[in-house]
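Dear Dr. H.,

I hope your travels went smoothly. While you were away I took the liberty of generating a structure for the chain from your last submission, since the lab meeting agenda had it listed for discussion. I wanted you to have the full record in hand beforehand rather than looking at slides cold. The sequence, exactly as received, is reproduced here:
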Amino acid sequence: MNDTDPIAHRPAPRLDPSWAEPLADMFAAPMMADLRAFLLAQKAQGKRIFPKGSEYFRALDLTPLDKVRVVILGQDPYHGEGQAHGLCFSVQRGVRPPPSLVNIFKEMKTDLGLDPPRHGNLTHWAEQGVLLLNSVLTVEMGQAASHQGRGWEKFTDAVIALVARQERPVVFILWGAYAQKKAAFVQDVSQGGRHLVIRSAHPSPLSAHNGFFGSRPFSRANDFLIAHGQPPIDWKLPE
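The corresponding predicted structure, in token form, is as follows:
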């Protein structure tokens, strides 16, 4: 997997075996060949694609399937210069946190008493088992939603289904209607399932006051993990 040919290998060589083996058929499917051809054509036209090719599967690289304890779903990568690096809602150090991420930090302050960090890089969460998965893994610079409907959605549907089939209880944090629809098949413990599904409004400034603020997703996730014999997530980002 490299920047010029990021999905040339099936399965992608940098993927942890816990992902690569069950997703091998997906990588070999015509859909992924079409997606690869689309991305290469876009680059050949001089279009800039975010994140860089080596980070398309960053969420899976950092959080092996057998380590997933929490899933947070996003929609598309950030399309601004230097923002996206393969983890939903996260930006690279030195990049100003976007409004949705600022609101996530505000809710962390209310929920856990944690002061907002001075950066927006959520790698610390991913390394603890928080799968920070976007539905679509690439975007053209400055063109929001430009790679929707090209095949990524089917790939990430398969990723979510793999997590949902795990025997280990997992917390699914679904912010907004898009994420809730994408993972609608995941059964909450209140419905007889084994996973905890936390649904609320999206942290975007357009909707955060309609149910995101006050939803306490971080403490609820940790309470569930502890109740099922798992260590809590350390949500405090190291400076």
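Two observations you may find useful: The chain has one domain: 17-228. The longest strand covers residues 70-74.

With kind regards,
E. W.
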